[in-house]
């Protein structure tokens, strides 16, 4: 158990801090019947009981839209269906978890002892090229959109697609970014090509996040961000959610551990200070376990690692969750007015 292996002072800090994870794929595991998130499981990475053990107060639950789904309905219909099917979970777990549509709702949920769930979509192909779907999804509570997944789509190029059909962000993608600014949807640039990343930052009037990415200086891999991208995120007042996925953390993934997550966070702090990095586990988005951070219950290991490196309590609190709340506040500020 986490609470027997970490110093008491670290646990006091960790459990009193607001901890927010910017990306997991666990909701689909529930909706597709592979696991019930209300019950502790040994499989996968995350469920509500393990979130409690790990001190996680807020979680972005991504609806990943498989671009290759062999189903008759479209991508947007898949999102709508998933949102509807998830409704049963939120109702059944209402005493424990609440879907939050704003930072104010987030704080209310936490104040009443409940975990805040934030709904996200991974893959802008979910819009099917129709920006009205942004308004539709927003109306149903979606607050984060990952612009691309491993496929390029109508909005932008993916960093996994070397054909680069748009050479960055498309004209429709620019309009989508502006509409997300107007609505107050958090723009997520993880998975975008480098050019699309910079195009989005150049277009967005609000901070953006890279919800689950690593660092290219640590592991030379297209899904990871260069130091220039980290500096651009900082200039945008945005945030990198440090990923826990072993393959992104070091060349020899068998050697990867929680120490690599802490080292990555430390690198961002050295580069741009402690205001532009947070947590982006990608739990249940990969197989296997990261040593020392095997599942959501082990999250105090990150606080322990930062404390061991001499990070002051205020910085650790920022990294654990306050940075994301600040970004979300800025994304929501004065929505409905011209930006
Ligand atoms: Zn992803």
- Measured distance between first and last alpha carbons: 47 Å
**Count, helices:** 13
| Rg over C-alpha atoms, rounded to the nearest angstrom | 18 Å
**Biggest sheet descriptor:** 6 strands, parallel
Order of helices and strands: HEHHEHEHEHEHEHEHEHHEHH
Proportion in β-strands: 5-15%
User: Which small-molecule species are bound to the chains here?
Assistant: zinc ion
User: How many beta-strand segments?
Assistant: 9
Structural classification: alpha/beta
Shape: globular
**Low-confidence runs:** none
User: Helical amount among residues, as a percent range?
Assistant: 40-55%
Mean pLDDT: 96
List keywords for this structure.
three-stranded parallel β-sheet, binds zinc ion, alpha/beta, six-stranded parallel β-sheet, 339 residues
Topology, please?
Blueprint: H1 8-16, E1 20-24, H2 26-31, H3 48-54, E2 58-64, H4 75-92, E3 97-99, H5 103-111, E4 115-122, H6 132-139, E5 142-146, H7 171-183, E6 186-188, H8 194-203, E7 209-213, H9 227-235, E8 239-242, H10 246-249, H11 258-272, E9 277-279, H12 300-308, H13 313-332
Parallel strand pairs: 1-2, 2-4, 3-4, 4-5, 5-6, 7-8, 8-9
Zinc ion binds at residues 122, 191, 212, 285.
């Amino acid at each position: 158990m986490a609470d027997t292996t970490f110093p008491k002072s670290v646990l006091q800090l960790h459990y009193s801090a607001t901890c927010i994870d910017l990306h997991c794929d666990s909701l689909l595991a529930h909706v597709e019947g592979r696991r019930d998130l209300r019950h502790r499981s040994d499989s996968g990475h995350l469920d509500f009981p393990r979130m409690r053990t790990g001190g996680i107060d807020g979680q972005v639950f991504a609806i990943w839209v498989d671009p290759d789904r062999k189903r008759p309905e479209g991508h947007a219909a898949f999102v709508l269906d998933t949102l509807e099917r998830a409704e049963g979970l939120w109702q059944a777990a209402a005493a424990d978890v609440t879907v939050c549509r704003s930072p104010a709702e987030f704080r209310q949920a936490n104040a009443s002892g409940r975990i805040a769930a934030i709904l996200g979509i991974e893959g802008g192909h979910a819009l099917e090229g129709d920006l009205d779907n942004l308004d539709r999804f927003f109306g149903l509570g979606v607050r984060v959109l990952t612009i691309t997944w491993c496929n390029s789509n109508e909005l932008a190029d993916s960093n996994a697609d070397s054909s680069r059909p748009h050479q960055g962000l498309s004209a429709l993608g620019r309009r989508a970014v502006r509409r997300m600014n107007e609505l107050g949807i958090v723009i997520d640039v993880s998975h975008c090509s480098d050019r699309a990343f910079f195009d989005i930052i150049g277009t967005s009037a609000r901070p953006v996040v890279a919800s689950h990415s690593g660092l290219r200086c640590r592991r030379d891999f297209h899904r990871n961000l260069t130091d220039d991208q980290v500096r651009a995120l900082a200039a945008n007042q945005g945030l990198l959610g440090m990923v826990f996925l072993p393959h992104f953390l070091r060349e020899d993934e068998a050697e990867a551990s929680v120490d690599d997550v802490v080292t990555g966070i430390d690198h961002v702090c050295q580069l741009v200070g402690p205001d532009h990095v947070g947590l982006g586990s990608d739990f249940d988005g990969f197989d296997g376990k990261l040593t020392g951070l095997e599942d959501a219950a082990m999250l105090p290991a990150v606080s322990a690692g930062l404390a061991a490196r001499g990070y002051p309590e205020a910085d650790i609190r920022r990294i654990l969750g306050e940075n994301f709340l600040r970004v979300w506040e800025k994304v929501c500020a004065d929505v409905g007015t011209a930006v």
